[in-house]
Task: inverse folding
């Protein structure tokens, strides 16, 4: 994964021509302001609850599905950013998905994700508005609530004996359109 100053950028499916960039923040003091700006459309990004993210690849898979939905005109939500949050969930309920994977106004840890053309990331303009410390994405392992994550994705102990947590999550995200988990 390409990383510059704690921003990680990954190329999505080539047919979309899009990329996803992510930055993780801790000790955020203005989560309510950031959430309000995202909801109003003033900030073009997804603000994700990092306690439900085991690895950045989980976001890349959801972003790829969101980008494909946009390209093929099959989006379920109103924007590519809410589509990303919706795709992180295995629920078909949009508002439930957005509430579960989006941040609360009091959250102090937030993961910002933008979907953009190759050289059109708006991450730097978003980063200056977040009153918090940018940390490496590897810090997700310290923030993730693995028990809550397993519960959210309905992953059993037996399943983890034969596959990794990340593989189980990614499989569920990738197949959520076709399989009821």
Result:
């Amino acid at each position: 994964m390409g990383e510059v100053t704690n921003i990680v950028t990954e190329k999505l499916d080539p047919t979309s021509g899009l990329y996803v960039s992510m930055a993780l923040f801790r000790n955020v003091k203005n989560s309510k302001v950031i959430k309000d700006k995202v909801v109003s459309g003033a900030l073009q990004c997804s603000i994700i609850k990092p306690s439900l993210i085991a690895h950045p690849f989980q976001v890349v898979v959801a972003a790829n599905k969101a980008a494909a939905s946009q390209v093929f005109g099959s989006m379920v939500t109103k924007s590519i950013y809410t589509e990303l949050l919706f795709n992180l969930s295995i629920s078909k309920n949009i508002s439930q998905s957005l509430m579960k994977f989006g941040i609360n106004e009091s959250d102090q840890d937030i993961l910002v994700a933008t979907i953009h053309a190759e050289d059109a990331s708006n991450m730097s303009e978003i980063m200056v508005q977040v009153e918090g410390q940018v940390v490496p994405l590897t810090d997700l392992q310290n923030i993730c609530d693995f028990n809550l994550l397993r519960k959210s994705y309905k992953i059993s102990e037996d399943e983890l004996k034969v596959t990794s947590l990340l593989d189980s999550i990614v499989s569920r995200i990738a197949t959520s359109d076709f399989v009821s988990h």
